[in-house]
Structures
1.
Amino acid sequence: MPEISRFFGIVIAIFYNDHAPPHFHVKYNSYRASLSIVDLKIIDGNLPKRVLSLVLEWAFEHRVELMR
């Protein structure tokens, strides 16, 4: 899975032309989640609250790039 960002032990990855809805994947230790790019909600998996907060902050800043 192509990694597009890494910070504080959090890995963000995305596949080009992956299945709908548009989403990205997050890995943090043993946690895994997929988040929708459109509404920034978890569509699969789970993350600790602090990690989710950091991921949402990152995603909000990079939302336009993610949609491309």
Note: The chain has a mean pLDDT of 91.
2.
Amino acid sequence: MKIYGCVDVFSARFLFRRENVFNAKTYLSFLEQIARQYHGTRVHYVQDNASYHKDSTIWQWFKDNRSWIEVHNLPPYSPEFNAQEPLWKYTRKAGTHNKHFENEEEIFSTLTRVFRSMQRRPEQIRGILQPFL
């Protein structure tokens, strides 16, 4: 299952997007989703070192949008600094751990339920984001 996700560590606002592949084109689409959600807000965006994050079209997008978004790259191999990682762990615990799924859509339905729950009740993830404040 390929899912982009990001979280606002201050509000615990969580965004996600399912894709068939991870590449610069789909990542750019996810960044546009973030832009729509945070229009008019100053954003410090932290990303890991996925290969598509380094694509020239991605860097051009950040350059074109630098008036509202500033990108920060994590050091290589440092998931402990990525606020999204505890949310993936929470998702496994709350939704997929020790469960059998008949097909991919059943998995995605379960993931969506967990993600929507985080979106409706951000207080359930606020505590795991404390170290990143």
Note: The chain is about 45% helix and 20% strand.
3.
Amino acid sequence: MAETTRNAVCRFCGGAMEAGYAQSRFAFGAFTAAGDSHLVFVVPGEPTSLNPMTAFRQGAEQHPGDQKYILRGRRCTNCARIELSAEEPTS
């Protein structure tokens, strides 16, 4: 049984919430070799221009790129609802 998060209660039924994560898979169904698989939530940045001069200027001016966050989740042990949060940025 997964560890329940301290004082986490389901907003819908009041059941205990347990911490967990979603696993990503390769095309053939194999889990990642490292075992630290996670899903990522992406906030899109400014797209890079197709014009090489404009693209270079975007890089020089440090225009914002995509911001990526690791998705963490909790599951209710009673009604099975899932809550996701994306607070921790990826490295």
Note: Confidence is low (pLDDT under 50) at residues 27-32.
